[in-house]
Amino acid sequence: MSSDPSGAQRPVGSFVDKLTIDTPEQTALEFVIAGIGSRFIAIALDILIQIAVGLVVIIALAFGSVQLEAYLPKTGLWGVALLILFLFVLYFGYYAIFEILWNGQTPGKRISRIRVIKDSGRPLTPAESIGRNLMRIVDWMPTFYAVGVVSMLINKQNKRLGDLLVGSLVVREATLTELRPIWQTTQNPGDVSLAPMGAAMLTAEEASLIESYLQRRLDLDPVVRYRMADDIFRRLSPKLTIPSDNALSADRLLEALSYERRATGRY
After folding, report:
1. Which end of the chain has fewer CB atoms < 10 Å from its terminal CB, N or C?
2. Low-confidence residues of the chain: pLDDT under 70
3. Crossing angle of the two packed helices 250-263 and 204-216, in degrees rounded to 10
4. What is the pLDDT of residue 159?
5. DSSP character for 17?
């Protein structure tokens, strides 16, 4: 493995770029960095959606302007002004709004199974999503993301200028079984499979508490370990939906909760 100053690790001789992040909870996470190809597929899909929406609005405005022109002589000018404003919002607001509401994904990114996250592994804040997408003005220049492509080619994490501005990264979407935090465990992480328990209802502090426990559990005396797991789970259980036939210990349920939360993108 080789590392860059930002902490990214790249397998020598591999075509798969990976990033290993040490979270504030002292849990190591490994992400696969999205390539330029998958990012362009995502943006091509998003542009097709934008074109379709834009055409519908243009036709509606044109029809409305013709109908009102006889009564309001300046309707055409107002229609052009509204159209320019709408197209600006459609192009730049589309990405920011979806990434805020869908935890770093647009429809194109969701189909392509990629997601935007912070370098720390956390979701972007609304302000960061807006700033990242406003930089598309520069990334697009002089035509069809030429500046953005050059930027992605010359840095190891395939970042365009918007990513460099806010410290974001586009990674492959992780499913419940694909995202494997490096915890202290004596069992196979993949054997935790339960119906959703409502991990998305947990606060960031509660999720951090679970992560801290999972990272340190093997350093604890067994009696202390399982008592602590029971205490943590009892504290969180009012927010959760626990299967009636559950036979797992609190220790394993906490692990399942963490995988479930990560699978939603709320790292």
Report:
1. N
2. 1-16, 20-29, 65-77, 79, 174-194, 263-267
3. 130
4. 93
5. -
